[in-house]
Amino acid sequence: MKNNILISFILVYTNLFGSAEDHLLLIRSSIDAGEYLIAEVNCETAISEYDANAALYFVRAQVAVKLDRLDDANKYFIKAIELDNKNENYRLEQEKLSELKDGMTNARNTFDRGRMDDAIIEYEKLSSAFANNAIVFYNLGRVYKVNEEFNLAVQNYKIAMDLNPFEEKYSLAIMAIAQEKAKAGDTEYRRQEFDSAIENYKNAIHYSPSYTTAYFKLARTYFKMKDYENARIILGQNLEVDPRQEQSEKMLGDIYRGAGESEEAIKHYNQAISINSNYHQAYYSLGATLLSNRDLENARVALNSAIQLAPDYAKAYGALGTVDQELGEIDSAINNFLQAVTLDAKAFKIHYRLASAYNLQKQYENAKKSAKDCLNIKRNYAPAYFELGISEKALGNKVAATDAFEKAKKDKNWRKSAQFELDMLSKGF
Fold first, then answer.
1. 140, 161, 283, 292: least buried by Cβ within 10 Å?
2. Is the pLDDT at 1 greater than 70, yes or no?
3. How many domains is the chain partitioned into structurally?
C-alpha cells in the first residue's frame, strides 16, 4: 500500500515537473530512501520519455546493480556510454561491474569443479572488493552450505538479505537451511533421541526466528519428555511470532490440564477452536476437561462437535458415553461406548466403562464379556476386575466373583470397594 501511494505520487510529480532532471531528482530521492523498486519503476518511466538521456541509463544501471540484476546493469551501462562516450565515470563503473561479473564467473567455475576451499577464498576476496553487492555474499553462503558449514552459510545469506531485501531467494535460502535442521530434528525425534532433536530444532529457530513450525516441534519434544515448563515457554514464544496457531494453543491447554489448572486449559482450548473451528481434537480435549469439571452439559456440546467434525473419532464417543453415564442416560452411554469400541477395539478403558454401564442395566452377560475384553487388552486392570466381579456375582458365580474381587483388591484405589464386595459375598449376599 505504501509503495502504491509513493508510485502515484511520483507519477503526479513527473506530470507536473516532467524534465529529465526532475526524473533524476526523484530517482535519487528513492535511492536515498532505500526504495530501489520504486526507483526502478521511475527509471522505466523516465527512460520511456527520455530514451536518449545517458544519465537516466546510468542511474538505471546503478539500481540494477543494487538489485543484483548484473546483466541488466551491464546493458544499461553500455547504453549510457554509447550516449555519452566521453564520460569516464560511466566507463569506470562498467569496468568495475565487469570485474565483479568475471570474478563471480571464475569463483563459480571453481565451485563447479568441486574445489570448495578455493571457491570460498575467491568469494571472500570478492566480498571484500564488492562489499555492497548482495549476490557475492549469497554465493559465498551457497558454498558454505554445500560444505555443511551452516552457521557461516546463514551468516552470509543474512548479509545478502540486509544488502538487498528485495530479493526473495536470500530469505528462502535461510529458510531452506532452517527446514533442513527441522527435518533432522524430526528424524531424531522419531528415534526418540530427544536431546539431539532439541538441538536441531533450536538451530532451525536460530537461523529463522519466525519459523513457527520449528517452535512447535521443539515444544512437542519438551512435552514428550514431560518437561512441561520449557514446552510452555516455547509455545508462548511461538504465539508471539504468530498468535493464530491452534496447535500451540491446544498444547498449552494440555499442559495446563495436566497440571490441574482446568480453567486455564479451557481458555486455551477455546482459543484453539476460535482460530480453527474445524479442530476436532481441541473440541475433544475441551469436552474431556469439562467432563472432569462435572460441567456435563457443556462437555456434551463440545464432544458432539468433535464427533460431527470427525465421525470416526473413537475417543470422543468414549468420553460422550461417560457423560451420558454420569447423567444417568445409560442406554445412550452404551450406544456411544459400543461405537467407540467398534472404531477402536483396543480401547480398554471403554470396554471397562461399557461393562460398568451393562452392570447398571443388569445386562450381566454383556458386562462380563466387556470386562473380559478389557482384561484381554490390559491385564490386571483393577476397574475391569471389579466390574467382572459384579457381573459374576449377579450371575451366581461366587467363586469367579471372589477371584475377580481379590484381583481388583490388589490395586489400592479399588481395595476398599473390592473388600466390601468380598465381605458381602462371605456373608451370603
1. 292
2. no
3. 1
